Structures are given as C-alpha cells and as structure tokens.
Amino acid sequence: MTQFDQEHIEVDAFDREYPIEELLPQELMESIGTDSADMLPGQWAILNEKGNWHYRFGSWNPTLSGRLTNRIVEKQPEGETICVRSNGSCIALFPIEYELEIKGYMAVCGPCQAKHQLLETGRAGVNLLKQLIRLKHQTMLTSGLHGLVVEESYADLKKKAEQLSISEEKYRNLSASLEIEVQKKTEEIRTAHAHMMQQEKMAAIGQLSAGMAHEINNPLGFILSNLTTLMGYAQDLATLMQHYRHLAALCSGNNRGGELPSIQAQCKTIEKSEQTLDGAFLLADIPVLVDESLSGAQRIQKIVKDLKAVARPGESEQELINIHESLDAVLTIVQNRISPKIEVRRVFSPVPLLYGYPQEISQVWLNLVLNALDALENQGTLTISTQAARDQVVVTISDTGMGIAKSNLPKIFDPFFTTKEVGQGTGLGLHLVYHLIAKQGGRIEVHSQPGQGTTFTAHLPTEKG
Ligand SMILES: Nc1ncnc2c1ncn2[C@@H]1O[C@H](COP(=O)(O)OP(=O)(O)O)[C@@H](O)[C@H]1O
Ligand SMILES: [Mg+2]
C-alpha cells in the first residue's frame, strides 16, 4: 500500500459524518428508554437535525410531531425552546450538540406546572444522550479503524501471500529447470566419461595394434607360403596321376601280349617322374604343411577373437564371465609386448563365473597388465593369479618392476596422474580400473615396494550386491 493510499483511508475514517440514527441506534434507545424510565419524563422523543423523527418513547403523541418538525426546519433552534400547548402541557426542545454540531433534538413533554422539572430532566436526558453519542462515536471510530487495520493488513497479507506464491512458483520453476539442467550436465559428464573410457581403451589397443598386426602377419605369411607349396605339390600329383591313368589304359587293352613293351616303358616313366618329384617327401610333407597352416589359422582366429573380446566397444549386455578366458584374451593381445626376458606366470585356481560386463572386466586386466609390463622394462616376472575366496574372485597382477614411490601411491587412481613421458601415458588407466571394479561391486588394493615390484589385487564379488 502506498503512502498516499494510507493517508486517504485515514482521512476517510475521521472525516465521515455520523448521523444521529447511527450515533443513537434504535436498539440502544430502546434499552435507554427502558433503563431510564424512572429518570426521564413519560413522553420523550428524538429528532434528527432536519427535524425527522428518529425515536419516540412512551406515550408520545404522534400528532405533536408535525409542529416540532416545522419549527426545526424553519428555525433550526440552537438553544432550549419551550412551547406551551392549549391542553396545558409543555414541550421542551433541546438541541443535541456533539463536536460543535447539532446532531439532532430531544423533545420532552409534560404538564406545564412541572415545567422546571421538565426542563431539568430534559437537560439531564440530553447530557446522557451526548455521553452516549461520544462513546458510540469513539467505538465506531475505533472499530472502523480496527476494521480498516484488519482490512488493510488482510489486504496486505493477501497481497504478500500472492507475491509469495508467485515467487514460490518462480522458485519451483527455477528449481525444476535447475534439476533438468543438472540432469543434463550429469548425463553429459556420464557420456564424456564413457567416451573417455572407450578412448582410453582404444588408445591402449591402438598402441598394441602394430604388434598385433605382426602377430597376425607371421602365421598369415607361412600359411600363404604353405598354400603355394601345396599348390605345386598338387600339380606334381596331377602329373603323376596322368602317368598312372595312361598305364591303366594300356593294361586294360585286349592284346595284352603285344602291348607289354609300352606298359614297361610307361612304368619306367612313372618311376622317373616319382624320382624327379620326390614323391615320398611330397606325401610326407603335405600333412605337415596342412597342420602348420591349420595351427596358424587357429592362431589368427584366436587373436581376432581375443581382440574382439577386449576391444568390443560399449556397455552391451551383462554376461557370465569366465575370468580365466578374459585374462588369457588380454595376454594374447599384449603378446608382442612381452619380451623374451619376461617370464609370465599364470597361477590360475578354479574360480566361479562372474556376472558382469565382459569388455569392462577385460579392460581392467589390460590396463593392469600393460602397467606391469611398463614397470618391468622388458625383464622380470609378471605373475597373474586367481583365487576363489568365499563370495569373491580374487585376481592379483604382480610384477617385479620398478615399484611406486610412496608419495605417489595415494595419487595413482586419480584421473590424469602419470609418471610416464608425454605420449607414453594418459594417466587414465588406473582411474578407469578403479571405476570399473567399483561398478562391478568390487574393490582394488595396491602394494608396492620401490625397486622391487608392485601387486594389484582385485576383489570381485560373485554375487552383485
Ligand atoms: N605396476 C606398476 N608399477 C609401477 N608403477 C605403476 C604401476 N601401475 C601404475 N603405476 C603408476 O601409476 C601411474 C598411473 O597409471 P595409469 O593410470 O595406468 O596411467 P598411465 O599408465 O597412463 O601413466 C603410472 O604413471 C605409474 O606411475
Ligand atoms: Mg596405464
């Protein structure tokens, strides 16, 4: 509410004219009339300032009224007036003044002999009415003000409540959009994190790819060479077959006696041909070449399968995982990083299958094994062991490498922490290992002795909690 509005209302409340009908309401007059019957004369009445009748008490004779009204309208008497009637009765008229204004008149009527008493009781009556008016006025003012105050504070409260509900609505909308924003950002971070994990994995596999290409190329090379040799053998065998067929045709002729020399000549040719082709060697060599090629092809098949198992992108489905198979797949794809001076020990005990994301588990092993190989610097021992322990599968990956400085131990799982040269390490490997093991419901521990080696122990629950 403005300053102006407030002033306006206050002026209104104090400025209002209260007519006698409001100042001396009927019900009040009824009770005065009854309570003061002994003190006031038997007939009295009240008129307003315009001479209109407001209240009549007792046996007031209405026929008196017209004359009094006229007198008031004409003269607007400001003092007491008394008139004597022909029947010997007197009427005294008293103005009822309040706050310097004549609010109305009190008329009393009685026998003229008792004129003085009539005047006195009339005055007393007017005084009483004035008191009542004052009280009533004050009450009305106060209640009016109270009403105003109540109304004002109610209006004020209502306005404030409206404002509150508007701002509440605003905050609700704001918090809803904040929530959406947070969700969006969380989603973005999650996607970025997943992307980062995938990048890290692909980076590791990328680094391994040259070696893996070699791993594939080697068997592929001898398979091709074997196939070329086998092709030559096949041609030699075809030539021999031709000689044999010719011999068979000669043998099946009717005049066997006459053809004998040609049969003998053909046998000579076959013998010669076998000598040239080294048929015995050829027959012995074929299964060797085929065997070798088969195992080469199987080797390629395994590399591709293991590479697929480790490099397969995304979070696909949860599956039952054979931990030994996933460790072996990792060993396959890091094969070319394992120098001859590194001894790999697989100490596998029977362990149950685990339920989880296979490619994520293999990423754990890949990062741990690559770190171990980095630490080994081409010599020493890499030990991978598995153990079943109550409701867990425990996998340890241990190396006899350089170890981790005590001051670095608390930092190794932090993202981007690396002690490797630029281009050699991203510092994300262990961060992802930690994250992926936690996702699996497990935990990872590290023990390291600088100069002696490091052991990472992964505890993976068989039942996800
Ligand atoms: N087996 C380990 N032996 C010694 N140090 C290790 C080993 N594994 C991890 N570290 C240390 O932890 C750091 C962080 O490892 P990681 O998160 O895999 O990042 P990156 O291999 O890219 O450096 C490495 O830089 C290295 O200092
Ligand atoms: Mg690493």
How would the blueprint of this fold be written?
Elements: H1 3-15, H2 20-23, H3 26-35, E1 43-48, E2 53-58, H4 65-75, E3 81-84, E4 89-98, E5 101-111, H5 115-251, H6 256-277, H7 279-311, E6 319-321, H8 323-333, E7 342-348, E8 354-356, H9 358-376, E9 380-389, E10 392-399, H10 429-439, E11 443-449, E12 453-461
Parallel strand pairs: 7-9
Antiparallel strand pairs: 1-2, 1-5, 3-4, 4-5, 6-8, 9-10, 10-12, 11-12
Helix pairs in contact: 1-5, 5-6, 5-7, 7-8, 8-9, 9-10
Bound molecules: adenosine-5'-diphosphate and magnesium ion (MG).
Magnesium ion binds at residues 367, 370-371, 425, 429.
Q: What does this protein structure show overall?
A:
Helix 1 (3-15) runs antiparallel to helix 5, helix 5 (115-251) packs across helix 6 and helix 8 packs across helix 9. The strands form 3 sheets. The chain has a 5-stranded antiparallel sheet, with helices on both faces. The protein has a 5-stranded mixed sheet with strand order 7-9-10-12-11, with helices on one face. The radius of gyration is 60 Å and the shape is rod-shaped. The protein has 465 residues and is of the alpha+beta class. 58% of the residues lie in helices and 18% in strands. The protein has 3 domains: 12-152, 2-Layer Sandwich (Beta-Lactamase), CATH 3.30.450.30; 204-310; 317-461, Heat Shock Protein 90 (2-Layer Sandwich), CATH 3.30.565. Adenosine-5'-diphosphate (ADP) binds at residues 367, 371-372, 375, 399, 401-404, 412, 417-420, 425-431, 454.
